[in-house]
Amino acid sequence: MQVQDIKSLFLKHKEPNLFHRYITNKHIEPLLNNLENHIEIKTVGKSVLNNSIYGLKIGEGNKRILMWSQMHGNESTTTKALFDLLNTFLNKNGHLKHVLKACTLYIIPILNPDGAEAYTRVNANNVDLNRDAQNLSQPESRVLRTVFESFKPHFCYNLHGQRTIFSAGTVNKSATVSFLAPAQDEACTITSNRKIAMEVIGVMNDILQKIIPNQVGVYDDAFNLNCVGDTFQNENIPTILFEAGHYKNDYEREITRELIYISYISSLSYISNNIVTGHHYESYFKIPENEKCFHDIIIRNAKVANDSNEKMNDIAIQYQEKLINGKIEFIPKIEKIEKLNSLYGHKEIDAKGFEVFGMDNQLVKINYENVFVIINNDKIALLSK
C-alpha cells in the first residue's frame, strides 16, 4: 500500500475517543463493548489490583501475530494506534481484508492496567514487567506468558513509547519512531529469526523515510534475557520492538500515533503478502542507532554566576509528566546548567548573555520547576501551546 492510501485510512478510522497521553481501561472498555459483536474479546487475566487484562483475537489466517501494548503503563501511543487499526479492520470496504485472510492477530491493548491508571512505567508492585520475563513474578507477566504459549505466535510485536531525549544518531534529528530486532544470545548473533524481524523493520523504515526522513532509529541490541523481547527471540520467535517517540511539538503524540499506525499496516501487509525469509535483512543496518542528544528546551548563552566569576552556560530543561486531575501535565524542570554543545533542544531560547531568573526573581538553579522564566525582564513561557 502507498503512503497516501494508509494516511487516508488513518483519517477515516482514527478512534476519536482516545486522545492525549492518559489511556486506561476506563477509556478502552466502552470501545471493547462496541467491538465484541465483531471480534473475540476475553478477559485473559487480572492485574495486581484486580483490574482486567483483555485479549482480542481477529483474523482467520495461518500466520499468527501477537501484539501487546502498555507493558509500561505510561506508554500509550501504540495503544491508540491499535484501536485505529481495529477500526480499519472492521470497515466494510475491506481495505485490510488481505491481512485478516492471511493472518490471525492476538492483541493485548493494555497489559499493565494498574500502571496505566497511575501513569507509571511499573506495575502496582513497583516491578518493571519488561524485566520480569524469566522470574514471572507478577500476574501481568504470567498472563502474557500464558497467551504466548497458547497462541504460539509466528511474530511478536512488543509495543512501547520512548522519551523525548532520543535522537536518530548523533545529529539534530529526533527519533520519532524506533525499532529493535532484539538479540537472543550474549553474542548478539544475527540468527535466522532475527533476520526475519530485521526484514520487516526494513520495510517499515522504507515507508517511514518518505514521511519523516532521518527520524527513525534502532536501539542497542545488548542482550538481557529478563526482557520479554529477548526471551521470545531466544525462543526463536521473530520479535519486533516498536517505540513511539517524539515529533516536533507533538507532546500529545498524535502525529506519532499516525506513524505507528502506518508502521502496523505496512508491516502486516508485508507479512500477509509474502513469505518472510529474512533474506532481505541488510537494510536494517542502515538505520542509525538511538542516542540521547535532546532535551525538551535548551536556553543558550545564559550568564551564570560561578564564585566571583561570570561565564556563559546553557540551561537544559526537561518536561516532567505528571498525572493531575486525570490529565497529563508537562512541568518544565531544569536538569543541567553547563555547556551543551553536543546536545539539541526541541525548543531553543537564546538568552543573549543575560541572566535567567525564576518567578521568584532568583537566578534559576538545577531542579527549578516552573512554566516561565524571566530573561532581560521578559517573561518567557517554557511550555509550547
From TrEMBL:
<dbReference type="Pfam" id="PF00246">
    <property type="entry name" value="Peptidase_M14"/>
</dbReference>
<protein>
    <submittedName>
        <fullName>M14 family metallopeptidase</fullName>
    </submittedName>
</protein>
<keyword id="KW-0378">Hydrolase</keyword>
<feature type="domain" description="Peptidase M14">
    <location>
        <begin position="15"/>
        <end position="247"/>
    </location>
</feature>
<comment type="similarity">
    <text>Belongs to the peptidase M14 family.</text>
</comment>
<keyword id="KW-0862">Zinc</keyword>
<keyword id="KW-0482">Metalloprotease</keyword>
<keyword id="KW-0645">Protease</keyword>
<dbReference type="InterPro" id="IPR000834">
    <property type="entry name" value="Peptidase_M14"/>
</dbReference>
